Amino acid sequence: MKLRHLEIFYAVMTCGSLSRAAEALNISQPAASKALKSAEMRLGFTLFQRVRGKLLPTSEAITLFEKAQSIYQDLDNLRLLADNLARDPRAKITLGWSAKPGG
């Protein structure tokens, strides 16, 4: 999965629809749809079931989304760290990581 695929997948999950995700990312809906299909091809499984015009996440998508949320939280923490360093480059930095067993 490419970073752009993750970005579009995350946007669809948080926005609730492909069209709203595309709007949030400032891309066309067909471009978002194409990228989502490309992600599914790379992953080897379907992320969303298309039912009556709606995208319903598969169990695999829900599992991936849990990890994506963690990744986006880490990105927010990285941005906060960068902001703090920009304000005070002498600031002490303490980094902590946790690992889930088996993950």
TrEMBL record:
Residues 1-58 form the HTH lysR-type domain. It comes from the Bacteria. Gene3D superfamilies: Winged helix-like DNA-binding domain superfamily/Winged helix DNA-binding domain. GO terms for molecular function: DNA-binding transcription factor activity; sequence-specific DNA binding. One of its GO terms (biological process) is lysine biosynthetic process via diaminopimelate. PROSITE patterns: HTH_LYSR. This is Transcriptional activator protein LysR.
